[in-house]
Automatic annotation (TrEMBL):
Annotated GO MF terms: 2 iron, 2 sulfur cluster binding; metal ion binding; oxidoreductase activity
InterPro entries xrefs: 2Fe-2S-bd, 2Fe-2S-bd_dom_sf, 2Fe-2S_ferredoxin-like_sf, 2Fe-2S_ferredoxin-type, 2Fe2S_fd_BS, Beta-grasp_dom_sf, Diverse_Oxidoreductases
Keywords: 2Fe-2S, Iron, Iron-sulfur, Metal-binding, Oxidoreductase
Pfam families per the UniProt record, alphabetical: Fer2, Fer2_2
PROSITE patterns, sorted: 2FE2S_FER_1, 2FE2S_FER_2
Signal peptide: none
Protein name, entry field: Carbon-monoxide dehydrogenase small subunit
Lineage per the UniProt record: Bacteria, Bacillati, Actinomycetota, Actinomycetes, Micromonosporales
Location of the 2Fe-2S ferredoxin-type domain: 4-80
Organism this protein belongs to: Asanoa ishikariensis
Regions that span the bilayer: none
Amino acid sequence: MPLRIVNVKVNGVDQAFMAKPDTTLLLALREQLGLMGAKRGCAQGACGSCTVLLDGAPVVSCLVPAATIDGAAVATVEGLADGQELNDVQQAFVDGFATQCGFCTPGMIMSAEALLARNPDPTADEVNEAISGNVCRCTGYAPIVSAILEAARRRRDRAGTAEQEATR
């Protein structure tokens, strides 16, 4: 099988790795780049545990051939925190007890990030739709939806405060 060098920007950092035709983005992230946030669940694209952002759009990385993403930008859950400080969505998940086993959490958070990037003030129905490709077997979804809505509120509040300070 011929190998291909794939150049991508992962969490804002230029990366290169070797990919066989059957190497998935998930395998490249975990095995070649050491990013373990995205999880291998069903390996069929049905559970969402491997969700990452590819050029800003949520994708199930177990189905994306790594050789097809040369030049793309990939964001994983590891790239959201600022050092030890969690971002709004991550912190809202912790504060709202939206994790139990944690297996689905990275995929849920990345789906939430994609939603909030395009819609900073979603309804509960819009959150449910955004995470509909992510399966959680532990929480019953209510804490997850609440955490995403809380993260959205925190971001809006911070944006409003920054706007007020800028006009002073």
